[in-house]
Amino acid sequence: MTTSKDYLAYVLDLLAEVPGVSHRAMMGEYLLYAEGKLFGGVYDERLLVKDVPAARGLLRAEAIPYEGAKPMLLVESESPTEVARLVAAMLPELPAPKPRTRAASAAKTKGW
């Protein structure tokens, strides 16, 4: 099952209070970033975030995004303020984005 664009729009509205949110389509699902850091995704019409200590302190329900993946934490709140607090607490615990290599930049430019 893939995530609908309507559900993605709902999640992006829910994340409206998080500065610098972006998303990227990935095989029918969506990866979510804040300040360039991957913090979660939308999988099968569910908002899931990475299992880091700050998120674990606020969320309990685990979910598997897809077969073979590590468990993530299910966000059940419908409050943009609560979700913004969750993401803000997670950001310091997430790794910095990896710098792009020349080959990756060239491939993107050429449309590969």
UniProtKB/TrEMBL annotation:
<dbReference type="Pfam" id="PF04993">
    <property type="entry name" value="TfoX_N"/>
</dbReference>
<feature type="domain" description="TfoX N-terminal">
    <location>
        <begin position="13"/>
        <end position="62"/>
    </location>
</feature>
<dbReference type="InterPro" id="IPR007076">
    <property type="entry name" value="TfoX_N"/>
</dbReference>
<protein>
    <submittedName>
        <fullName>TfoX/Sxy family protein</fullName>
    </submittedName>
</protein>
